[in-house]
Amino acid sequence: MTLTLDDGRLRATFDPATGALTGLAGVGGWDAVARPELGSAFRLLVPLEGRRNNIAEGTEQAPPRVEHGERAVEFHWPRVVSRHGGPHEIAVRQRYELTDGRLIVRTAVDNRSDLIVENVYSPVLGDLRPPVPDGTLTAYRHDYGSGMAQPMWPHFQNSVGYHGVDVPTQLAQQWMAGYGTPAVPYTLIQSDGVGLYVGVEEPSAEFVGWHAELWPGYADSLEATVPLSDEIAGVPVRIRFSAVHLPYILPGEQRALVPLRLEFYEGDWHAGADVYARWRDGWFAPAPVPAWAREPHTWQQLQLNSPEDELRMPFSELVEVGREAAAAGVTAIQLVGFNEGGQDRDNPSHRPDERLGGFDALKQAIADIQALGVKVVLFAKFNWADRSRPDFATTWLPHAVKDPYGDYYLYPGYKYQTATQLFDVNTRRLVTMCFLSEAYLKECLRQFDTLVALGADGILYDECLHHLPSWFCFDETHGHRYGAPTYANDLELVRRFRERLGDRPDFLFAGEAVYDWEFAAYGLSYHRSENPRHLPLHRYTAPDRQMMTAVTGFDDRNLVNQALLHRYVVSLEPHNFKGRLTDIPATVAYNRRMHELRVAARKWVWDGRFSDTVGATVTDAAGATVHPFTVFTAEDGSRSVCVANYGDTAVTWRVRIDGAAGPYRVRAVDDDAWVETDGEVALPPRSAAVVVEG
Q1: Comparing C-alpha atoms, which of 48, 109, 114, 59 is closest to residue 84?
Q2: pLDDT at position 174
Q3: Buried b / exposed e across 182-216, counting CB within 10 Å, b at 16+?
Q4: Which of 121, 123, 44 has the alpha carbon at shortest distance from 84?
Q5: How many CA atoms lie within 13 A of 646 on its CB side?
Q6: Full-model pTM
């Protein structure tokens, strides 16, 4: 006997004897739980004294109570039995609701035991396989300012150390922000032309991560291949995929966990990302952006000092940098390392370094640069305290995020300049501070007041996207619960900054590679995208947000081209943001040409809607699709294609905009005028062009 929910777009089947999800079928008949006998319900981690890894597996429990209706089924286990601890007074409810092809999974835990429920895996897909035997599976997720793809079938990428797990294991590992919400609120399981979206159904700072295991392991570990038989060595071959919650439910607590959505889609990752964007747009309101930052423009980033005491330039000489910026058409300068000790030293202090001239000299320099028509944005960082500060133990340690053992989390820090530091001998270690501590938030506000008093046009909060290496704080003296999520006040901090600021609509709040929900607080996101196969997942889901990328090379045409294609503001950073614009004249000149084209075509490439490659094709003489190109749609519905040739030889490609027969107009970055074309575009080496309808 099975229970079924079916609305014609998605069909979910369950075993009433175990509560297991035994089938999940959608587009094209793909059943994402291939074999019903491998279906799963939930898994709890309930640590015991002397046996921390103690699991209560849903399918190993007594039969649950069941309530079944046309659109929902609910399972209730009044108590659970763990593998090493016997029965526990821990009740679990799982409710599956099906509406318009969306399966919403709600899980609640009532902990009446004397143990802590640390992990809850729910929902669980017990036998995830491609729709066809020779098919593929790839996980797509948000990454640092972009996106990432992790292969799952027929190759399975192991993202954790093999020493720590029994089988190859994959987490949604983002480069800096980690493994789950709020930085990675969904994952796409993409096959050939179809996919499964799994994401949170409510915006929440509570941690939900994406976890997959390949059982029983690789067929060939050198090639990381999945065994292509139903079983190997007498064990069923399967991928077990879960959303995993880390709620830390204490004895006597009840908790409704963040609900999850599962939804099939037809198409590639763009269609899956559309599912997320539609859900987010139903509740999300982006932060206001100053008028100057909404225009096409360019930045420069300049470091004045590092922890190794370069003391590159006194504040009194900064006006020369401003003159160079004005001459190069640069709108804003981001100043880094102006604070005492230099960049990544003496955190969280933002007091201007006296050795560079002190507060008054920097304030005057900012005013002098602004008089030239150039904005000044100050680098800021609030995540950490520098453990090498003499007052760390007395002033900052009480506000540090604590682990379950009562110790602070230690971030390895950043290495600068000298061989001593590059070999990690005298690196300044950084300790994660707790934003749930009101005392620490007040200190952040005092530091922000210093930045505002300097007269800056904004701040760029470096590493606002994470609190690594922490996800939770266990120090209840801060005024929060045991195991509270350290990301919970990310938006609250900037909300308080705005309150402090008063009426300053021209003040920009920018951040580094802000995770998507942080755009509710920040008007601009800065990241580095130096990858010729850049995957613009974040740009695709946030097409009109202000994003900026670093350009560091001396003839960096291709990164400038990439910025044009992906609607990124350019941040010019010669010598890795330690040089002057006069050091990179070729890059500055090419960026000016790109800016002119961007302004000429701003109806599409700046004010239009970015859709990556959706809506057009670009092919070579043999008819093969080429890379990279992107599509923009203007408010009036007309479209453009940006196309770049990253290679060192000239090419001729053909552009076709869906539903538009031509003719088109085309203009390259190095050209001064538009010319008519039937879609054929000749591109010199390392160049880009815009092709528009009509």
Answers
A1: 48
A2: 66
A3: bbbbbbbbbbeebbbbbbbbebbbbbbbbbbbbbb
A4: 44
A5: 17
A6: 0.96
